[in-house]
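[Solved] Which block belongs to which protein?

Original post:
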Amino acid sequence: MNTPEVQLQKKKYGIVGNSEGLNHALDIALQVAKTDLSVLITGESGVGKEAIPRLIHDNSLRKNKKYFAVNCGSIPEGTIDSELFGHEKGAFTGAVGEREGYFGAANGGTLFLDEVGELPLSTQARLLRVLETGEYIRVGSSEVRKTDVRIVAATNVNMAQAIKDGKFREDLYYRLNTIPIKMPALRERPDDIVLLFKKFAMDTAEKYNMPEPIELSEEAKVRMKSYPWPGNVRQLKNVTEQISILSKERFITPEILEEYVPEQPISHDLIQLNASGKEQHSFENEREILYKILFDLRNDVTELKKLVHSQQTAGSSVVPATSSVPAVQMHNPTPYYGSSMAYPQEHPAASVMPPQVQVVPAAKPAHEEDEIQTPEEYVEESLSLDDWERQMIIKALEKNGGRRKGAAHDLNISERTLYRKIKEYGLEK
């Protein structure tokens, strides 16, 4: 598997490592390069999937044609069709001229679709047609165009689960997955970790004119190999650069590593089931559910504020002090699940009350005002939900070192939604 040709490609593209899984992936890439078959590269975020499509293109019969790399996860859903397939003048607001699109521009060459699992379903249907017939239609046009593009796609999404959840078309998956290539995670190639560390240390020292690169002690090497590296090669590079710049010592011991390598990394284990076959209780899962509910809650709160405002303008109260409607009590930030209680339909505020609010019968008579929360008081508390949402986004970004994909995963929302929220709250750096 570790042929001279594979070694030559490693040197050419700066790929470091001698693990069997890495050599196997490179060998498949070289074999399929001379064909026009579609390739789907899978692997966790940060494993270096982007090197494979470039290698395939440069060793193909299309090497003298154009090569484009498109990150599907970074393009807003409303404009991705225009980016990929082009548009006509006036097709939508802001379309002041024609756009060729990547499929038109890459005609005869290779198009690398990174994060293909993030594509909207409507775009997936268009992509399937191009793969099967070579035909596509620009946004705002009825003219069928032809293109000859070789597709190489990559994803870190569990495609089988995405298909099961209805988020990815099964027919498109099989069309893209003609030749599968799996890039191994860094924890699956422990012997390569020290080699990569040495390379990154030398690159950093050269880039910043340091007297000498940092070096690991034997004990530190063992520590590096035993760490699972959830961020894979990208995380290892970041850690190496941090140590190179910040550490005053050039000989790195395990004690120095502890300052830069987290003690308890993110787990890659599957969800464990208990003896009854049910998922074990996880506060991590509850937090993700809370994130999702808070995002969905915003629309409900907006409608409620409009309703209360209209009632105040009309000089009427939504819930009189003598009303028999159960009191609304906010106990704690933890959402209340499984309640079958509902507000009476004659009270309009009930139909827009957020799902986290627990409805309980009033514990004291209505004349004891400290137990009754008026709609005005509820709206005042709800106004802080925007702050909650903003703070949760900030915390998720901090937890993932600014990586939006990881933050979106923790928040249980798409990366496009997170990108829109970041712009909305002015969190761009």
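(Second protein starts here: sequence line, then its structure tokens.)
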Amino acid sequence: MLRLVSDKWTLLLITLLGRQPYRFNELHRAVEGISQRMLTRTLRTLESDGLVEREVFPTSPPGVEYRLTPLGVSLLAPLSELAGWAVDHHAEIAAARRRPT
């Protein structure tokens, strides 16, 4: 699970989907620098882990929308806490990185 949430695309997608459902192309436009292949791969992983659900609409071409599952929503609070910790300790981490090893 740590490997999953340490991936930058995963965190970004969970954060975005925590705001609202997105269609694939909307997500692709919203996430600067992600390839279609990586977006597809990350969404499939999140779906198989039960964090994201995919809904297909019977349109031509078929529309697909992604949203967080209740399990995915439950991950938002811990991620927010982790981000807050990183902000609170940014100066200490930066200082540690500058120390010679």
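Accepted answer:
You had them paired correctly. Confirming on the second one: The CA atoms of residues 19 and 67 lie 9 Å apart.
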